[in-house]
Each structure stands twice: as C-alpha cells, then as structure tokens.
Amino acid sequence: MIEALTPPPDAVRTRRQRSWYFYDWANSAYVTTTSTVLFSPYLTAVAKSAACPGQDTDLACHTDLHVLGLPISPGSLAPYTVTVSTIISAILLIFVGAIADRISRPAHLLGVFAFVGALAASSMFFVAGSNWQLGVVVLILANQCLGASLVVYDGLLVQISSDDERDRVSSRGWALGYLGGGLLLAVNLVVMTMHDSLGLSTGEAVRVNLLSAGVWWGVFTIIPVLGLRDVRRVGPAVTGSLTAAVSGSVRQLRSTFAELRHFPDTMTFLLAYLFFNDGIQTVIVSASLYGKEELGFGDSQLIVTILLVQFVAFLGALLFGRLARTMGAKRAVLLSLGLWTLVVFAAFFLPSGQFGLWLVLGVGIGIVLGGSQALSRSLYSRLVPTGRESEYFSLYQAMERGTSWFGTLTFGLVHQLTGSYRLSILALVVFFALGAVLLRRVDVERGSARARAAG
What we know:
Structural class: mainly alpha
Strand content: under 5%
CATH superfamily: MFS general substrate transporter like domains
CATH class: Mainly Alpha
CATH topology: Growth Hormone, Chain: A
Strand order of the largest sheet: 1-2
Number of domains: 1
C-alpha cells in the first residue's frame, strides 16, 4: 500500500520540473516590465523632479543631484544605479552560490531571495515625487535578490533533470518566462494607454504597473517553492549554524578558484559565455535606442517591437530545444551565434523608417534570443561538479552580470568616436565571433566526464 502511494522516480521528476518552470514565469515579469521598460525612465523623471522642482520632466535638467558628496546628473542616475547594482552582483553572487550548496533545502533559500526581491520590487510603488533615494535602494535590493535567486534556481536544474532532459527543461523554462513577461507587459501597456479612463495620471499608472510586476513575482514564486520543497542538497549533509555555513563557503570558494584550472572546458565555456552573452545583452539594451535615434521610430512602435520579441522568444526557446535533440546543445548555440551575427548585419543595413523590416528583424531577435540563453544554461549544467551546482552557477551569473558593461561600453565608445549608431551595432559582431571561437574549443563530453568524476 505504501508503494502505491509513492510516485515513481519519473513522475516525481516530471512534477518537480513543472514546478521549476514557474520561477522563470514569475521573475520574468519583473525583468520585462520593471528592468527593461518602465523603471529607468520613471526613476529619471523622479530625479529630475528632485533636482529641478516645478520643471516639466520631459525637459533637460541642468542641476545636479548630490550622492555621497558627488554631483550626479539626474539623467545619469538610473544607469549609474544599474552599474553599481551590477558590480555588487558580480561579487555577491559568488558567495551566494557557495552558501547555497551548503543549505539542505535549496527551494527554501530560493523562496527567501525571491520573496524579499518581490517585496522590494513592489515597494517601487512608493517611489514618487522627488523620492529618488528610495528608488535607488529598492532597485539595487531587487536586482541583488533576483540574481541570488537565479543562482539557486539554475543549480536546481541539475537536481530535477537527467542529462538528456536538460536542454528540453531549460528551454521550456525560458519559453514560459518570455510568455509570462510578455503577458504582464501587454496588460501594463493597456493600463498605460488607458490611464485617463482609469482615473490615473501617467505617474500613477507607472507605479501601479511596477507594483503588479512585484506582486506577480512573489505570487508565482509560491509554485516552485512548494513544488520543490522535497528536493534535498546532493552530497553529505552540512551541519552547524549559518555562520559555520558562511565560513565554510569562503573556504570552499578558495578551493573552487584553485581547482577551476582542472576543468578547462568549464573555464573555456565561461569565457565564451562572457563574450557572446555580452553581445546579446547589449543588443537587448541598445535596440530601443538604435530604433529611435538611428531609424526614427516612435515610442509606441518600439513598445510593439518589445512585445513581438517577447512572444517570438517563447517559440524560439522551444524551437532551439528541439534542435538541441538532433544536433546537440553546443551546435545549436553555435547556430544561434551565427544567426545573431546575421541579425546585427541586417540591423546595420536596415533603412530608416522601414517599420515592417524592423519587425522582421524583431522576429529574428526573438527566435535566437530564447534559444541561445536557454541552451547556454543547460549546456553549462553538464560542466559543473555534482553537489556544487549553485557554487558553479554563481560563477555563471557573475560572468553574466560582472562583465555585462563591456558591450555597452563598446557601443557607446564607437558612437562617440564616429557619431554613428550603425557602426556601434556592427561592432558587436566581435563579441559573437569571439564567443563562437571559444565555444568551439569546449569538449562537452570530456568536460562532463571530469565534472562527474569530481562530484
């Protein structure tokens, strides 16, 4: 009778995977609505209100804010805040990964980070008037919690799926994330468009949408936290206090960096990911700027483009998950990098004002966006030692966040030197080329064998 009540391993694994998918769905709403679309322009408007009270926030403000005694232009506050947040993440996440691998119930730790992050994201509703300081604090806190939760979440991929399932599982998670983020963004845009009919000012509509992203993140996190609560840390149990876990994690980090040279394929993959992910992130961040300043599209056209990319990326992630079954994850990622290069060249030659061709380009971005990110995660999961998944995924996340300013710096410098956004976008080809060259050197089978032997 007891056996009948105990689900078979396959059924348990399937249930866990379905729960795991929903954290992509949960956090993508914050990434899309808050990080990508709404918060930076809104924080800039609040900063302008503080520096130039009574002035229309659409106009340039030439009075500086003062942060720790340093003069800061209101228009630079948001990117500076993101830069500080990124630098903190690059350092913090490495420690988070080491600690996470010493916690017996990773889903509980995922919940702690996610719920605190969702609370910070929801608190953006209270950023109003001239209170830019609160905006800076909650943005940094939410971003740290997002990064920390993703370290734990990515590490769980290894524990809920077998080697031959990971490409499919990772791809479905990314796909669901794009779908969830796109659905909430569509609702948010309706609220923004109809704010007068709803009795809301523009600022109030933005605050309501920011609140919705935080609530969405928190509510849907309940599904993976409950669904993965029976997942236990792989390896011997760790006893002692949290202080002991932290001190033990520091010692473990030293050994991790010392032994990384014994995993050359893992290290080469991280270097490859550093370059090609930086190119991807720069295209995402700079696409709206390129479309507006170089091609002359309006805000509404750019919003339509963002929605299109979100929903196509849902299909792209599933498509590349299928391709990985036939050609392998590494070849599928290399294919995506080739397609990214074609997208960049197409953007370089795209005539100004051709919105139809711009949407076709958006479809291309969506197809390769989901696939390249989802398969990179699953491919890397094969190269990490068993029982130390979060620790090694913290390096993965740190590589993504700690170097994500290289591409944007290149983009900005090329424009400053040449005055052309077309040459700026073309310069990103270098990142995809270097990433592809390094990725071709990764021997996945050899790296996976070494990781299993070490675990």
